[in-house]
Amino acid sequence: MPKNSKVVKRELDDDVTESVKDLLSNEDAADDAFKTSELIVDGQEEKDTDVEEGSEVEDERPAWNSKLQYILAQVGFSVGLGNVWRFPYLCQKNGGGAYLLPYLILLMVIGIPLFFLELSVGQRIRRGSIGVWNYISPKLGGIGFASCVVCYFVALYYNVIIGWSLFYLSQSFQQPLPWDQCPLVKNASHTFVEPECEQSSATTYYWYREALNISSSISESGGLNWKMTICLLAAWVMVCLAMIKGIQSSGKIIYFSSLFPYVVLICFLIRAFLLNGSIDGIRHMFTPKLEIMLEPKVWREAATQVFFALGLGFGGVIAFSSYNKRDNNCHFDAVLVSFINFFTSVLATLVVFAVLGFKANVINEKCITQNSETIMKFLKMGNISQDIIPHHINLSTVTAEDYHLVYDIIQKVKEEEFPALHLNSCKIEEELNKAVQGTGLAFIAFTEAMTHFPASPFWSVMFFLMLVNLGLGSMFGTIEGIVTPIVDTFKVRKEILTVICCLLAFCIGLIFVQRSGNYFVTMFDDYSATLPLLIVVILENIAVCFVYGIDKFMEDLKDMLGFAPSRYYYYMWKYISPLMLLSLLIASVVNMGLSPPGYNAWIEDKASEEFLSYPTWGLVVCVSLVVFAILPVPVVFIVRRFNLIDDSSGNLASVTYKRGRVLKEPVNLEGDDTSLIHGKIPSEMPSPNFGKNIYRKQSGSPTLDTAPNGRC
Q1: Quick check: 436 pLDDT over 90?
Q2: Is residue 336 domain-shared with residue 477, that is, in the same domain?
Q3: What mean pLDDT is predicted for residues 122-132?
Q4: 474: annotated binding-site residue?
Q5: Least CB-packed of 521, 601, 637, 661 within 10 Å?
Q6: Is residue 422 located within the same domain as residue 453?
Q7: Strand partners, 598
Q8: Taking CA 156 as the corner, what is the angle to CA 152 and CA 161, rounded to the nearest 5 degrees?
């Protein structure tokens, strides 16, 4: 940044309303002053720059206490519940160990380059998502507003999951665990097991009936579930208290919320390895199915997982990086956080399938015992001849291998009559093939496995405390992606905005703690984020590469990092990533069109799930979620392209940043030259490598308003 450009700064400070003509008359003087500033010795120049930046911008903007705190914040935001309950499911479903290859390829092609791009623009411009894209081009400022809307939609239902985890955490301090066995129902004559539980399982019954008290369809609200309402309130209070001072308050909590899940995962992994059957689960998990890897669906789901695992498009990445110093090596951060995220997913997958392997082994042993007793009954009744049973096999204490031998013999001998015997093969692979994800994994399958653990309450407390911390880490980044851009743009007090944001979210979130609330969570999860975020990130890529200019952006990075980034990123950003994102968007739209919009409803009478289509009003809500999330992009573009709002009305198009306060600027200026002068102050001017021409339009620049003018 030029030091002697303070002449221009003083003019702007003294009289912002000075005419464009008068300001332009000082152009040559400013250029001469800038050229003179290049003669300063490098060391002194850097020192002065730090002082100047610190005096005007740095002191007013919070900063991370350390690099570790920042990395943990980014890791906490990117590593969320999806790493624990989504990645293992996709890995099992899409070829086991073979799924890791397309995931790694897409991480290199889509994940790291786009993550690096968001880190770079946030760190360089030092604003939230709204300010960043206004800086790139005011006409594309709607990208930032769209990110905020999507963040808010996600925060609404994501915190409900934290509330569920808090409920299970509160119920874990008892022995035996409340979901260990089916409840008994007493009437005047006798006591019997609850029919709904008997037809399903203890953990399934507890989840749907005790925790959610779920209704049979989305149209039956059933009123509020007061237990979950209290838990949701507690979750929002925790988020509000942690975020009320921004990174100054959440930064202290990050050390625990980001590191504790790793402690729990490692403890679970060690404990699971000591349990019988865990190796079977891991072997099943990583047995590669190479033929599945070639299917297009596998690559689409891997790309989607990479996209959401890193939190691209939410604005949290940009918000967190905006609190960095401008010379921070964000390229190293991008690679480090991306691979930490990947290895966390692999670690979680090992834990999940080690535990599920143990659970499958327990269920398999019960299956063998029950079927062995059935075979002994058939032997006594004469339905099966004793002669076909090998003499060395004792059905009272039969092993899995011996049972499978007897099963195969009976199947061959009683070929026609075998189906009527109703014997099960009791193979552990069949149990492991029952793929579960999301709430089905966390609140049903995993909780059932933990009931068989020694000291099960301790492990239950650890597991749900881990889920709470994973959720909070992601919520911190999500709320930061909402609050930071609004504070930067409108200069409101962060404390007041955070409280209002959380209070409003709790009130809206009451729809998720009705008896039908789980169905609304599914709806928001399916429609509020997927398509809008893909569109947002595509527009981010286009804005940087084709509106701002990829060559100019590479020069920015060279100046900021102190070295030129690899040309690999140039080609990824300009050619490969846009094409991959566009392909992913088309594939997602096609998949959404082919899949009937609906949800899995719990039918009490059948004690099982049943797929139901959304009613007409539900389809309207689904479409509205997508439309409202994307609507800011075309609205802001049209308003600023055609100047539909009067400049004197205090509209968003005439807001700019200056020394911690908001100034109004005329937006009907002719040409980029004048907008650059009115829109920038020295502390926010581009760095010296490309700053020589800050008063002149860049040659070859697009006709769209590409100047980094800082207007909102």
Answers
A1: no
A2: yes
A3: 92
A4: yes
A5: 661
A6: no
A7: 613
A8: 135
584 is in an annotated binding site: no
Residue 503 annotated as binding?
A: no
Q: Is residue 649 part of a domain?
A: no
What the block records as the tokens of 218 is 């989305």
User: Domain end: 642, 660, 685, which one?
Assistant: 642
- Do residue 167 and residue 273 come from a single domain? yes
Q: Please state the rounded mean pLDDT for residues 50-75.
A: 69
Is 328 annotated in some ligand binding site? Answer: no
Per-residue model confidence (pLDDT) at position 481: 92
Residue 158: inside a domain: yes
83 known ligand binder:
yes
d(CA 631, CA 148): 12
Domain holding 570: CATH number?
1.20.1740
**What are the Cα distances from residue 116, in Å, to 290, 325, 335?**
31, 16, 8
Average pLDDT over residues 413-440: 79
Q: Which of 261, 239, 266 is nearest to 250 (CA)?
A: 239
Sequence-ordered list of residues with C-beta below 8 angstroms from that of 52, at least 6 positions apart, any chain: 1, 3, 682, 683
pLDDT, tens digit (0-9, with 9 covering 90-100), for 189-245 = 788 888 899 888 899 999 999 999 999 999 998 899 999 999 999 999 999 999 988
- pLDDT digits 0-9 by tens, 518-532: 999 999 998 988 899
Last-in-domain residue among 382, 403, 433: 433
* CA distances (Å), origin 274, targets 277, 278, 280, 454: 9, 8, 12, 11
Cβ atoms 488, 579 nearer than 8 A? no
